[in-house]
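Recall the central idea of this unit: under ordinary conditions, the amino acid sequence of a chain determines the structure it adopts. In this exercise we apply that idea directly, starting from the sequence alone.
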Amino acid sequence: MLNQHKILRVLQLISYLEQSPSKTISHLAELLDSTERTVYRYFDLIRECGFDLQRDEFNRFFIVDERSNGVRFSDEEATFLKELILAYGKGNKLKDSILTKIYLGSEIPIVASHLVNAKNSKVIEKLALAISNNEQVYLKKYQSINSETITDRLVEPFGFTENYTTVMAYEIASQKNKTFHIDRIAYVDFTGKSFQHSEQFEKQIPDVFGFSYSGETFPIQLELDLKQVLLLKDQYPLTAPFIHYNTKKNCYELKVQVNNLLPIERFIKGVE
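Accordingly, the structure predicted from this sequence is:
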């Protein structure tokens, strides 16, 4: 309930900031029945979500309305496009970027479920620019499952994997090619420094759980019931082609080669 309340407050704040005239911190705090300190924290989240938050010469804040530029959609057109993308674009990170542009190019309201996804679209856009410019970047506050840490990673990104779920990059500190999940990157910082290790780039194809090859693969052959199958497909959609029903055993079977056993081990423990 707390998170839902926070999302509602942020959406209200976005709405206030998009309306003229610009507003002071104290006025915004009054409108939200909150504190000025909390409003500043919401500002950080709004910026991370990709909104262009500005301050005028009178120390009043506003969001630049990008809807006046570029393609415009009617409410009916935007709603149709949104439904089409949500129906057929599941699992594709480009979906989030397109949805953000639809919201900006129409009068339909942005919804809470896409607030965080706007952050992902910004991450993808910045990484694509870095790849195009051969520029090193920092993946800020990257959340690692392996090390269970949140750290900044200096990398040279050189490509995206299927559906833009991860970015392939050469990590400077470890001197290894790795894949980094878009969802786990808070934001991207440009360094202004050119690639130094292009000759060492090696394309990384992650397994169905998103882990890259690190010198060893592991075969999985697992019997599943219907509940486990549905949960597994929901958490890891790329496992679907490797799950088949065995009529003789009257159960489902997962048969696949993976690069890391940790995800499936955690999944099994979670459903036991």
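The mean pLDDT is 80.
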